[in-house]
Amino acid sequence: MHGDLTRRLAGAFAMICAAGAAWAEEIGDADRGKEVFDYCSGCHEVGKGARNGIGPHLNGIFGRPAASVAGDYRYSEGLERAAADGLVWHLDTLDAYLENPKALVTGTRMSFDGLEDPQERADVLAYLRQFSADPQDIPEADPTARKSEVELPASVLEIVGDPAYGEYLSSECTTCHQRDGSDEGIPSIVGWPEEDFVVAMHAYKQKLRPHPVMQMMASRLTDEEIAALAAYFKEFE
Amino acid sequence: MSLNRRTFIGSGAAAAAMLSAPRVMGQAKARVVVIGGGAGGATAARYLAKDSKGAIDVTLVEPTRKYYTCFFSNLYIGGFRELSSIGHTYGTLASDYGINVVHDWADAIDRDAKTVTLAGGAVLPYDRLILSPGIDFVEGSVPGWDVSAQNRMPHAYKAGTQTELLKAQVEAMPEGGLYAMVAPPNPYRCPPGPYERVSMVAHLLKEINPTAKILIADPKPKFSKMALFQEGWRKHYAGMIEWLGPDFGGGNVRVDPAEMTLDIDGAVENVDVCNVIPAQKAGRICEMAGITKGNWAPVVPQTMQSRMDENIHVLGDSTDQGDMPKSGFSANSQAKVAAMAIRGALTGARVFPPKFTNTCWSLIDTNDGVKVGASYEATEEKIAKVDGFISQTGEDAALRKKTYEESLGWYAGITEDMFG
């Protein structure tokens, strides 16, 4: 269980910390990505003539603000909220979303558990990248290659949170987030899986997940404090 | 058994260790008295009772049986909330948390005997006292106005009947009439409050009396979220609102409640409604306890203890603490720090580094919400700002709507955090 969690987190952290390395590589293998897209094609269309279905079409997804496909597509409250906070689909945010949709966008209707394998995500994103604006024509478009990943040290991932400290820290959360799990205007944080919680908080801390209040709150939490909160909320009912 | 609780506490760390040991039958419990049942006091009482799990005897003294939050009271004026939706009672704090809720006024504090005397005559002994009385007004700060004029010229800066009165006066304004506000000097409760108030009055007038005008006389050259409010006023209420800062005499006013006039720098205006928000100071009980310096009660940032009496903690609007604005959110945040420090001192509970936060949402018009916020830390000298954010001018309607909806979620969250 713990090993599995650590591995999943390692993927998430690698994704979160993708900024700031020295060399670039292709996003992934677009041909293999076409096969991975089979997971997605039940709900999403992409390519010439693609239309909205159960999910919105994915043409031009790179560089597109979340929840912004024109027409009659009805997005979930969660995606609308993330969009209002400024979520834009780039390589890093798409990667985070595919890795664990609910950890990036609370309340999304995308009923997909996520692609655990970073390579599968890279491949499918390389495939999807072909259906967005071509950087040769538009210099400011999203790149087709990305910078190399930086892994967080295992020591950060292995921190055992102190639930008593987490309980004290949680009192800052409950000024806005209701204990009874209501999610009017502000998402619920009751009953979150521990790993989703840690991923979400680090995503705010790295300013990958948008929202100014949460970015501020997360920015001053240490790795120990995030672990403490996760340990507390794991037990929270 | 006549064990003297206070000498027990006085012996410091050894006492704390003993207290956290299994309790002896009949041993007196540590006693905390909280004066004021708002965002600071109710939160502190609830966290003390909840987290000490019965080890601390908590008494909450609050004169009103139904407490109306100042935050969101402007939304009632604008027609976005019912008054009943911002009224809260103390039943859950009494029944579910075992807090002794006493509806009475605190009349006197004896710091040597460590007792509070209530107007009804009861004497409450304490080991620690929390004062969270909110604000009182500085007498003479608006020439011509005193509290006896508050029915002619309401302040509506303590929510409830004053808020109802102000709204009723706005609704009764003659067609094309004039609503005037005398805005307060810094520091005061809820920095964006007067300007959200103006926005909500404008919203109401636009519906029922669109040719009416609003005039603000302000002693401050700038105010909270100024660019956001002014942008919103131009957009939603063009031509309706005039703001006069100190350069235009806004700081040199006199009112005549009998004549219903407002004199701004010598120019006398007849007004139909005059909302006078005077200069403010710590709640009177702080002054009576002798823990104020100037208008406010200075506190130690790490624990919210009075700098003049280590057995008294002060929360919220009454404090002089540093960079935090006087807001319900701030008081709630400070209350949790104080509750932790008190539990540490009285029961030997673990004490963690204090953290403070504030966010203030304001509504400008339907679905046009803005916010400002910051995080803070305790330094030796003061509660100091670490990091902050503010809504931007020119934001799109979807974001503003989300910001407003977020404020609704926050209201539900903080009131649950206060009242259980």
Question: Would you write up a description of this structure?
Answer:
The complex is a heterodimer of chains A (237) and B (420). Chain A has 2 domains: 2-129, Cytochrome Bc1 Complex, Chain D, domain 2 (Orthogonal Bundle); 154-235, Cytochrome c-like domain (Cytochrome Bc1 Complex, Chain D, domain 2). Chain A has helices at residues 2-16, 30-36, 77-84, 91-99, 101-104, 118-129, 154-157, 163-173, 194-205, 212-219, 223-235; strands at 24-26, 64-65, 88-89, 145-147. In chain A, the strands form 2 sheets. Chain A has a two-stranded antiparallel ribbon. Chain A contains 11 helices and 4 strands, in the order H-E-H-E-H-E-H-H-H-E-H-H-H-H-H. Chain A is mainly alpha-helical and 237 residues long. In chain A, helix 1 (2-16) runs parallel beside helix 9 and helix 8 (163-173) crosses helix 11. Mean pLDDT of chain B is 94; it is low at 1-26. In chain B, helix 2 packs across helix 10 (328-347). Chain B has 11 helices and 25 strands. Chain B is globular, with a radius of gyration of 22 Å. Chain B is of the alpha/beta class and 420 residues long. Chain B folds into 2 domains: 12-136 and 281-351, FAD/NAD(P)-binding domain (3-Layer(bba) Sandwich); 139-278, FAD/NAD(P)-binding domain (3-Layer(bba) Sandwich). The relative contact order of chain B is 0.15.
Task: Set down the secondary structure blueprint.
The complex is a heterodimer of chains A (237) and B (420).
Chain A: H1 2-16, E1 24-26, H2 30-36, E2 64-65, H3 77-84, E3 88-89, H4 91-99, H5 101-104, H6 118-129, E4 145-147, H7 154-157, H8 163-173, H9 194-205, H10 212-219, H11 223-235
Antiparallel strand pairs in A: 1-4, 2-3
Helix pairs in contact in A: 1-4, 1-9, 2-6, 4-6, 8-11, 9-10, 9-11
Chain B: H1 5-10, H2 13-19, E1 30-35, H3 41-52, E2 56-61, E3 67-68, H4 73-78, E4 87-88, H5 91-95, E5 100-102, E6 106-110, E7 115-118, E8 123-125, E9 128-131, E10 135-137, H6 161-171, E11 178-182, H7 193-208, E12 213-217, H8 226-236, E13 241-244, E14 253-256, E15 261-264, E16 267-270, E17 273-276, E18 280-282, H9 284-288, E19 297-300, E20 305-306, E21 312-314, E22 319-320, H10 328-347, E23 356-365, E24 368-378, E25 383-390, H11 397-419
Parallel strand pairs in B: 1-2, 1-9, 2-5, 9-21, 11-12, 11-17, 12-13, 19-22
Antiparallel strand pairs in B: 3-4, 6-7, 7-8, 10-18, 14-15, 15-16, 19-20, 23-24, 24-25
Helix pairs in contact in B: 2-10, 3-10, 7-8
